[in-house]
Amino acid sequence: MTEKINHIGIAVKSLDASIPFYRDGLGMTFEGTEEVAEQKVKVAFLQVGESRIELLEPTAEDSPVAKFLEKNGEGIHHMAYEVADIEAALADLKEKGVRLIDETPRRGAHNSLIAFLHPKATGGVLTEICQCGH
């Protein structure tokens, strides 16, 4: 079902303060920023090999990322795995009894389709599955 690790999401207070470490310090390729209004975040993607780091800065105090930062501070927010067919993947996971946050896909960054699995079903790790390019 999963094809690869698409990205690792890292919650940050400021993209401007965080991007230089990954781009300049670690030498990752900066791909730009994008606002994802539905998620109330602004994201920056940095390429590393065939995967990416996704930095997430909240754009509203009530965003899930703002709540994460308040509770946990900056750090790893989620792991994202790429799938070829997100609807089939969600149906398969549901059939296997995996607890889903999203039963249907929603829009994510880069015009992708995304869905989150509940951390209680994934060993405590917020897990995203994504289908790119739609």
Kindly summarize this structure in a few lines.
With about 130 residues, this protein is α+β, with helices and mostly antiparallel strands. The protein has helices at about 15-25, 65-70, 85-95; strands at about 1-10, 30-35, 40-50, 50-60, 75-85, 105, 115, 125-130.
Task: Tell me about this structure.
By secondary structure, the protein is α+β, with helices and mostly antiparallel strands. The chain has one domain (about 1-130): Roll (2,3-Dihydroxybiphenyl 1,2-Dioxygenase, domain 1). The chain contains three helices and eight strands; from the N terminus they run βαβββαβαβββ. The chain has helices spanning about 15-25, 65-70, 85-95; strands at about 1-10, 30-35, 40-50, 50-60, 75-85, 105, 115, 125-130. Strands 2-3-4-1-5-8-7-6 form an eight-stranded mixed beta sheet. One of its GO terms (molecular function) is lactoylglutathione lyase activity. This is Methylmalonyl-CoA epimerase. It comes from Malonomonas rubra DSM 5091. Belongs to the methylmalonyl-CoA epimerase family.
